[in-house]
Amino acid sequence: MEGLTINWLAVIAATLVGFAVGFIWYGPLFGKKWMEATGLTESKIQNGNIVKVFGFTLVFQFIMAYCLAMFFGNQVNLQEGAFYGFLAGFGWVAMAIGVNGLYEQKSWNYIFINGGFWIVVYTLMGLILGAWK
């Protein structure tokens, strides 16, 4: 790890990309299908602790972006970053969601919506981290 430089602005930008994508993904794009797949209702969501949800989301996504930056080191460019981010999102995260979803007897909609979200987020995180050194 000697000589490894982390671009903290890129890590922060990669962290925030999940919020932007999530707003669209779990809102106008797949919001109703996702709520149906999870058994959530508008009232249940509104009664949730939004500060806790957003706060921990920020912390968890920061850790994800930081770990991805550590895996990349100083060796990855824009195309490689997007590709490796895609592989992490698809091969690790989406497949893990798929395994959990199968054991939890969730619908394919649940698996595809949540897995697809992380594929997109990790691809964009990788793109940002690879492009912005």
List keywords for this structure.
133 residues; mainly alpha; 6 helices; globular
Write structural notes for this entry.
By secondary structure, this protein is mainly α. The protein has one domain. Helix content is 81%, strand content 0%. It contains six helices and no strands. The radius of gyration is 16 Å and the shape is globular. 30% of the residues are buried. The mean pLDDT is 96.
Record the SSE blueprint.
Layout: H1 8-29, H2 31-38, H3 42-46, H4 50-72, H5 78-103, H6 108-131
Percent of residues in helical segments? over 70%
Rg is 16 Å
Question: Number of helical runs?
Answer: 6
Encode the helix/strand succession as letters.
Answer: HHHHHH
Mean pLDDT across the residues is 96
* Share of residues in strands: under 5%
Query: Which class best fits the helix and strand makeup?
Result: mainly alpha
Give the overall silhouette: globular
Distance between the termini: 16 Å
Poorly predicted ranges (pLDDT <50, ≥5 residues)?
none
Give the strand tally: 0
Structural domain tally: 1
